[in-house]
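Input.
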Amino acid sequence: MIIAVFMLLINPFVLHAQSVKVCGSCSLTSISEAISVANAHDTVYVNEGEYFEFDILIDKPITLKGLHYPVIDGQQKGSILKIAADSVSIFGFKFRNVGFSHIDEFAAIHVSNSQHFHVEDNSLEAVFFGILIERARYGTINNNTVSGDANKEFYSGNGVHAWHSSNLFISGNRLEGVRDGIYLEFVDSSQVVDNVSQHNIRYGLHFMFSNHNDYEQNEFINNGAGVAVMFSKFIKMKENRFYQNWGTSSFGLLLKEIYDAEITGNIFEENTIGIQVDGSSRLNYTANDFIGNGWAVKIAGGCYSNVFTGNNFTVNSFDISYKSKINDNKFEGNYWSSYSGYDLNKDGIGDVPYYPVKLFSHIVNQSPESIVLIRSLLIDILNFSEKVAPVFTPVDLVDQKPKMRLIK
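Output.
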């Protein structure tokens, strides 16, 4: 009794919150109509069935809950549902057939100027944009499936698209067949966790000008170009998997103008380029696995005070590509499967330093067609001569303490 009274005191809406029901045989057969008659903090229950509606507006704090996954079909006429109030929750629907436009960003769910919103456990099919979020805060986007049939960037939108927002929690979603699985621009203090983004036209994840964010335990598989991270700082990328992002200009992870980031415990497997880095400084790469990539790490200019330690470089065609003769980055205590040194004192650390940049990597950067010679004796001789007397590769880019065994 005391607990019940206390709950009423801290949440006076409990006193008058009610439920509204929508179904084919109910007095209310339209979702839009049910929302219009509902009071603030009511719950609108929608029975299973098909509802052919678009431009549904939620302008008050309510919960919209689907029973047995009712379908809301937008008939390709525009956006399906717009949230324009605080404290709105959407659970358990199938959204289908979002409209297409070269001017408007039509979405299955459009969140605008909202706080404390929840979009959970929904299926979004045949979308232009899936979930579009603008100028919103403290939102949860959890356990949704977003799919499109995009075949060109120009004719497709993004799965989850957020702009000028903060404190978002994007987790457990599956995204495929769109332009970018997840796109964030000017989005701060947010978390992207345990999502699977695959078979998208451009990027599995793409974010710009977005600071103080965490990306953990996501999978980015067979996208046009993996993940692009641009013009951001204070980023943590931990225990993600970048897999089979192949193409002439593809990569698992692109870092451009990134500062003060932690890249830890990730797996980069079978990508054209595992990580491509350009103009990024003060990054720590720790305990990552680079397996069977074309290039494990490709570093362009303007990269300073970066540290690579405790990483595994296993059967990559090239471990490191480096375009400058001057090195201000540290490589120490990594495992290199192509290392051929020895360990006389059996301490697990190679007695001979390892130089991960090969001359042939430099040649391929200048003349990509020369890659056909990668297994030839000539290339072995060239790499050996450069190792003895470096001319084209930075002599100070060296791992003085290479590990003899795979780091676990």
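Residues 1-10 have pLDDT under 50 and may be disordered.
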